Amino acid sequence: QLQLQESGPGLVKPSETLSLTCTVSGGSISSSSYYWGWIRQPPGKGLEWIGSIYYSGSTYYNPSLKSRVTISVDTSKNQFSLKLSSVTAADTAVYFCARLEVTIANWYFDLWGRGTLVTVSS
Amino acid sequence: SYVLTQPPSVSVAPGKTARITCGGKNIGSKSVHWYQQKPGQAPVLVIYYDSDRPSGIPERFSGSNSGNTATLTISRVEAGDEADYYCQVWDSSSDHVVFGGGTKLTVL
After folding, report:
1. Do A96 and B42 touch (CB under 8 A)?
2. What is the tens place of the pLDDT at every residue in A67-76?
3. Which of A44, A104, A110, B88 maximizes the CB count within 10 A of its CB?
4. What span, in angstroms and rounded, lies between the C-alpha atoms of B88 and A96?
């Protein structure tokens, strides 16, 4: 049974870079059928897509975050990672990693990690 | 960019039918996916491709999509259905994932 687990610092200082890793277990990140993505949820608010990556390294980013976001993949470790630079308090959120089922013109998240809270504060 | 509009809240009595809408320009031409999120938990996919149910999701959950509105319908609502529900599409014109703002379902 495939599982996703987020990991990384729970506290980041303003202006620094937030770094998170999602480890995929019970299956291969190199499956041709799926993309892998990051979604965040500020406290008490809705879901916001951050970006997605294919095992080949092809990426898609939310345009509102694109200038600060880098998503990468390490197939040898079965992991993908998120870096968000120049963070502010507005980046405080629960960050989820998830698997995306991808077909022509249809993307949806069929499996999610449990999420990790990242707080931006000095 | 493409916008999805959901009502902030919907209330329903146990045993009744809840309908949660998701509005978007010509959304009927897109595939809509729905997620259920309970407090402190990750979202769970409950409907994909407008009306398909993943394995393990009760038949009480159904979906439809036409014109400018997609609808998630929950029949015979139970207390355990109380949660936030989000619609989502893939906007192929801009290659972006778009979520609705979410609807809090309250079971009275």
Report:
1. yes
2. 999 999 999 9
3. B88
4. 16
